[in-house]
Amino acid sequence: MVLSGETIKKYVKEGEIKIDPYDESQVGAVSVDLRLGNQALNPDSGKEINLQDYHLSLDEFLLANPIETITLPSNLVARIIPRSSFARLGILVTFDADLLPPNYSGKPILTMKNLSKKPVLLRSGLAICQLLFEEVDSPVEGYRSRYDHTKPEPSKLEGST
After folding, report:
1. Are 44 and 154 in contact (CB under 8 A)?
2. Which residues contact 14 (CB under 8 A, 6 or more apart)?
3. Boundaries of every domain in the chain
4. Could you tell me the pTM of the whole model?
5. 2-33 tens-digit pLDDT
6. What is the enclosing helix (H) or strand (E) of 108?
């Protein structure tokens, strides 16, 4: 079951869902907006990029984080959903790792790629995607990630680099 905006607000108030920083105005009918953070990583070059007024070039691929840190309880998952306004500009946001599992804590990774024929301006603080929360039928314990969820990191799959 997808949580409504009112239920999301209630869970945040009760501490079941933690969003830091939290601004209630970011909560919509069934989701919460996440804003683009300050830094990104180009995994092809290994270069860190400052996202203050950054033009994402044609076919360029970046890993970034939102400003917000998310912590989930054992009975919820969250899905990262792209905003249609970015899709209309030709920007794919989070086209692979879109599920935050129960007990997740950290800054979700946002994968971004420009499919348009022109550079697109990215700016820290832009509402770039949304989180949709869903209940799990029974609590899940013991999730551990191979990433630290504090900054964009390249893949840790063996043989991927």
Report:
1. no
2. none
3. 5-135
4. 0.86
5. 999 999 999 999 999 999 999 999 999 999 99
6. none
Phi (first) and psi of residue 110, to 5 degrees: -115, 120
pLDDT in tens, 104-126: 999 999 999 999 999 999 999 99
Say which residue the tokens 């920007």 belong to.
91
Query: Phi, psi (5° rounding) for residue 8?
Result: -60, -50
Buried b (16+ CB within 10 A) or exposed e, 33-51: bbbbbebbbebeeeeebeb
The domain defined by 5-135 carries CATH number 3.30.2290.10: no
User: How far apart (Å, rounded) are the C-alpha atoms in residues 25 and 40?
Assistant: 25
DSSP 25: G
- Among residues 65, 149, 161, the alpha carbon closest in space to that of 105 is found at 149
CA distances from 153 to 62, 68, 86 (A): 10, 17, 23
- Residues in the chain, total: 161
How far is residue 48's CA from residue 152's CA, in Å, rounded to a whole number?
Answer: 9
Please tell me whether residue 12 adopts helix, strand or coil conformation.
helix
User: Of the candidates 79, 62, 61, which has an alpha carbon nearest to the alpha carbon of residue 70?
Assistant: 79
